[in-house]
Design a protein that fits this description.
The protein is α/β, with parallel strands linked by helices. The protein contains 14 helices and 13 strands. Bound molecules: pyridoxal-5'-phosphate.
């Protein structure tokens, strides 16, 4: 079995999830009759401190539905550098919602950067800035954090400017653990929040969008429009409920394992990485000039360690519940050796 650090999405449902899936009470969710889906939506919304929730097949769809709810075609959206909604959704934001993006920061950004990026309203040449998107944790900067204070300041700046706000909280559970905050506190400043059940929490499928009842009613229409309305989806929501109840508390182990790998890699020749920047379950390592992330990925694959090259010179690793401390130590040695051999 390879040690798979490509993503925290690679985990398979455990015995408790499979049992819950087999036992799930179901109904036709498009008639509002699937009790397991309703339970998941309610439980997730309560955890996030929002009025209502909506179960969706993926985090990408949650992001796209949120965009559709909170913007109109031609609007300008302020978003963090290389966010998932810009970088990893195969152009959906332009194709489906017809928005343009203004990227700010280099990872987590502050309210000042938001204020500076908002276009003046009512001006003849500017597109209206109608939404800010915060990705917490921020993937491409290496799982870095928007603190509660940063989130509250961004929410307040957005409200003051009449701009809506969306939290892409695919990894909000990691953020909550790392910051010692509740998910609700980190979500409170935002109109809508999307979470992933299939990342660190280990469910096989699914995301939830949460917000006011009015926003969620609108979101339900766009979910249908994008083909994401399902039927007896309680069979997958059941695994999501197990994930939400059982797997939040252990995420600190993944963070400790990521730190351990980062510390080992930082000591290798050919790596530019400060272990202090690794605060959740993602490690983004920049390689020195001339070291190819693709060659290192291939060398590691031959040694039984799977990685995700973000680009020619950047590697990403994700820790998760299927890789324990011993596996992470072994992987870190193999990766460090592969980088040094290619340096
Ligand atoms: C994975 C991810 C998503 C999308 O989730 P999928 O279920 O893979 O579509 C959205 N945002 C962020 C930050 C992610 O890491």
């Amino acid at each position: 079995m390879p040690i798979d650090l490509r993503s925290d999405t690679v985990t398979k449902p455990d015995a408790a999830m499979r049992q819950a899936m087999a036992d799930a009470e179901v109904g036709d969710d498009q008639y509002g009759e699937d009790p397991t889906v309703i339970a998941l939506q309610d439980e997730a919304a309560a955890l996030l401190g929002k009025e209502a929730g909506l179960f969706l097949p993926s985090g990408t769809m949650a992001n796209q539905v949120a965009l559709r709810v909170l913007t109109r075609h031609g609007d300008d959206v302020v978003v963090g550098w290389e966010s998932h909604i810009v970088f990893h959704e195969t152009g959906a934001s332009a194709a489906i919602s017809g928005v343009q993006f203004t990227e700010v920061g280099r990872g987590p950004f502050g309210a000042d950067e938001l204020r500076a990026a908002i276009k003046p309203r009512g001006h003849v040449i500017y597109p209206p800035t109608t939404l800010v998107v915060v990705e917490n944790t921020h993937n491409r900067s290496g799982g870095r954090l928007f603190t509660r204070a940063m989130s509250e300041e961004i929410g307040a700046a957005a409200r003051a400017a009449g701009v809506a706000s969306y939290l892409d909280g695919a990894r909000i559970f990691n953020a909550a653990v790392a910051l010692g905050e509740t998910e609700a506190a980190l979500s409170a400043p935002f109109d809508l929040v999307g979470i992933s059940l299939s990342k660190g929490l280990g469910a096989p499928v699914g995301s939830v969008l949460a917000g006011s009842r009015e926003h969620i009613d609108t979101a339900r229409r766009y979910r249908r429009m994008l083909g994401g309305a399902m039927r007896q989806s309680g069979v997958i929501a059941a695994a999501g409920l197990v994930a939400l109840r059982n797997n939040r508390g252990r995420l600190g182990e993944d963070h400790a394992n990521a730190k351990l790998i980062a510390t080992r890699l930082a000591g290798a020749k050919g790596v530019v990485l400060d272990p202090a920047d690794v605060v959740t379950n993602l490690v983004v390592a920049r390689l020195a000039d001339g070291v190819s992330a693709y060659d290192v990925t291939e060398a590691c694959r031959r040694e039984g360690v799977l990685l995700f090259p973000f680009s020619q010179s950047i590697l990403r690793l994700a820790t998760h519940l299927e890789v324990d401390e011993a596996a992470c130590r072994r992987a870190a040695d193999i990766i460090a050796q592969a980088i040094e051999a290619n340096a």
